[in-house]
What does this fold into?
Amino acid sequence: MSAPAANGCADLHLHTYFSDGTYSPEELVAQAHRQELRVVALTDHDTVEGCAPTENACAAAGIEFITGTELTAEKDGHEIHILGYGIDIQNANFLGEIGKFQAVRQNRIREMVQRLNEINVPLQAEAVFALANCRAPGRPHVARALVQAGLVGSLDEAFERFLKKNRPAWVPKFKMSASNATELIHQSGGVAVMAHPGLNRSDEVIPAMVETGLDGIECFHTKHTAATAEHYLQIAARFQLLITGGSDCHGLSKGRPLIGSVRLAYEHVEKLKARLAQRRAASVSHFSA
Ligand code: AMP
Ligand code: FE
Ligand code: FE
Ligand code: ZN
It folds into this structure.
């Protein structure tokens, strides 16, 4: 059985202010250094903008960095978050495709604000965009803007009253299919990992996702109990999936910063890197054939 998550040195699920986290890349890396992490991956939602500055800060701090993103996808009616690790962050096709989803996110902000206005909550879209100041804004930014404008007392209240599914300002988000997300990650040289499966409780879609190329599963996550982690370790063994883990730290937006609270053993990082090397070697031989 794998080493316990708490004994490791890697946190592979982190957000910055390039999506819905509060830390800058430099603040994130300073926290990683304080936590004595040896490896970090940045997994902002639908963007890789934060990767280059995080990589630079990691190099200065002597921390190993893995590029990443967290794509929102859909499979059989389930919302599935797919982590892409080791992607080439300059891949033009990848940037073009996630650009479409960034545009979807921006339009969705306008729609959420319009629905708030219809129920006499006078928030302005520009206030949300100014606060978010990133290409991949989401509901957490609307929540923060509502708090900032004094229209609700807390982020929780914003979600409970307005933003949760089936609340008045909830707007569904157009999602790519899980297989397209996996393919996009592969085409960009990365490996695809199902994020926090214990939150979505969508185990029945795992076999089909493995069929369409899923490489790994996030067994260790802040919201997984030890029993949940164990459950997904067994699934990983059954389907020969890579094992990953991370805190899903969003900085200071959700209480105490979570970075370093989930620590993946380095042996799993090595297996992830070996899969990435295999994928690169395969794509080189493909192009030279
Ligand atoms: P979006 O991608 O715009 O639908 O926003 C999803 C993000 O909102 C998640 O990644 C969480 O960070 C956050 N979130 C979702 N539900 C809640 C909630 N009930 N309270 C606080 N944050 C939430
Ligand atoms: Fe988030
Ligand atoms: Fe997620
Ligand atoms: Zn996340």
Remarks:
- The first strand starts at residue 10 and ends at 11.
- The mean pLDDT is 95.
